[in-house]
Amino acid sequence: MQRISKGKAFTALAVVGAVALSACGGGAKPGKATADKPVDSLKFYNDKGGWKDAFTQVGAASKKAIGVGMEPVGYSDSNTYTAFIRSSFRTKEKADLFTWHTGKELQDLVDQKLVAETTDQWTKAVADGNVPEQLKQYFSYDNKQYCVPLNAGYWVMYYNKAVFKKAGIIAAPKTWAELTQAADKVKAIGVKPFYQTNILFSFVWFETLLAGKDPDLYDALATGKAKYTDQGVVDVMNEWKKLIDAGDFSDPGSKTEPQAQLKNGDVAMINFGTWFSGNLNTLKMKAGTDYDFFVIPNLNPSLPKTSMIFETGPVCSAAASDHASTVKKWTDWWLTPQAQTDWANSRGDLSFNPKAEVKDPGLAQLNKDVNGYRLINRWFEATPVPVANKALEVFGAFVTKPGDPMPGLQKIQAEADAYWAKQK
Amino acid sequence: MKDRTGARAAPLFGLPAVAVVALLLYLPFLWTTYISFTSYDGLASPVWSGLANYKAMFSDPDLIGALVNTLLWVVGMITLPVALGLLVAVLTYGHKWGTWLRLPFLLPYAISGVAVGVIWGFVLQPDGALGQALGFFGLPGAHTGWLQAGPGNTIMMIIATTWQSAGVNALLFVVGLQSIPTEPLEAARLDGADGFKLFRHHLWPQLRAITTVVIGLSLVGSLKTFDVVWVMTQGGPGTSSETLALSMYKETFVLNDYGQGAAIALFLSLVTFAASILYLRYQLGDAREQG
């Protein structure tokens, strides 16, 4: 048997050590510019695994229109997705295109110079009328823009038309009083008026009630200029409790999907973003026939404008993408009316581009009317992550077992105090 | 003359395995330990913060609550599934239909923790299977929110996990029973020992080794409870059913506070390690004394 020399043994050790060290190296530094290499197709990482078909259709449309395809890589779990994208910045594989969140989440990436600036694209798109000017604020940091919009969603009240008919409700409610009357009529036929959940979307009724009662307080709360323990917030929580105690909400712990609850007639109304049309359409519910929606009236009827919750999400690209010119070519196309018409209709949803031809007449009308409302940034994006997380815990417990809201609000405020103190 | 070539070369053959283990296990552990002493959001470089994460951990009432829930899981899992497993094993051992009688208890073990969470989530929601069954028979509790308040929700989830894990414990105890020599048992029977008396004085002492294993596995498993809770309640409502493993996940992947998450991970690892060592030393020490 051949004896292994010390030299060979040392070499083997060195190789193993080098492999181990290179694996720990972490690759390129975040934000480091690399050479541009044009490609025929881009990978589009997203946390919307359920939208795969719509993304695939859009990818085929872009291939046809500009010769650049798009291949969706969808994640179904938002936390896993966020961790993946964050960690990808510490590797050589930077995401060419990826969905993200506005607010603090986007600011984190901008602060670290990890996302590509898109100021020129925004300037042109606004000038061409492809993106409304009022959207710009959600993508701006120090007067520069980052990413382009993925979507625009307006929060409205969806309702099951058959249930409304059975309850004898002829017209969609236009005031808060009419809404509560409709809820009473629905209860009379044994159906829960409103959907509610104790996980993630537990904030929905909080934001709706606060935005409809005191939108200035809502905005002040989002920027740390008001406190969760202020009387206005306590009043809203008590209003919410009153509705829960009156039996106006569905079981918040139910595991049945909200679209199925609306379809089955277990609940009459669901307060969701316009993307919910896509969820209902996948259950073969027909807009205008099986379901419809109305703008949620203000809790406070004396407000000059009706508040409407608004959300938008970005499509971003890593600053150090290897395929910068292809990404720009694709996102330029994405902003056009033709691309947005394809996108909106692939999901039966709205588009941020007012020129997109939306087939759903209800959504198309809403797209035209939005300027008449006071748009309120969705609470989830408007609220800093640690505060939102604490508040979700509190809201989750509150909808399950409503009581004195003050201890919960104090918990949220303690988290908010800690967060805003760090920002000064 | 002795050929020492093989002996000298042997460590080299082990190098790839050592490298893989170091790369996938020890280096991440060292990295996690380092991160736990830093402020790190996963994007910017970690900033040294000393013991700040550990101080925050022990002053946060929610994390204290998670620690209490974790202890509840430990107590629950080293009693219920172990006791049920032992009962099933003893009652079915030696029975003509023993294998078939154990089968219903063993089958749930083939289901993943996530699936158990989904199934029991449907059973325990207020209008779920349990509520409907109680309502059908006119029994009270039909509209109880089984998962909607602590510590009841944690107890219900321990019961759900017991349903899954009792079978494998039964199987291990049966293996233990099979290893007991039959002669002393027959002698004991001839001396009039039967039923509980036979179990208490003859079977139970000889099951000691397997009981140590079963309880040790339950102890470690319960300290890292995550999947069932995540699926059934996500730690809620509020933080009422959160465990330390869940807190670790939330701090790291929901709040992007990787430093705090790493501190909880390290604390949990140390507790698990210490509990395992102490338990095994105690058990083995006792066994030596008896031996």
Describe the structure.
The complex is a heterodimer of chains A (424) and B (291). With 424 residues, chain A is an alpha/beta fold. Helices cover 47% and strands 14% of the residues of chain A. Chain A is globular, with a radius of gyration of 24 Å. About 5% of the residues of chain A have low confidence. Chain B is mostly helical and 291 residues long. In chain B, 73% of the residues lie in helices and 1% in strands. Chain B is built from 14 helices and two strands; from the N terminus they run αββααααααααααααα. In chain B, strands 1-2 form a two-stranded antiparallel ribbon. In chain B, a hairpin with a 7-residue loop joins strand 1 and strand 2. In chain B, helix 4 packs antiparallel against helix 5 and helix 8 runs antiparallel to helix 11. Chain B is flat and about 75 Å long. The model of chain B has no long low-confidence stretch (mean pLDDT 89). At the A-B interface, helix 1, helix 3, helix 4 and helix 17 of A face helix 1 and helix 13 of B.
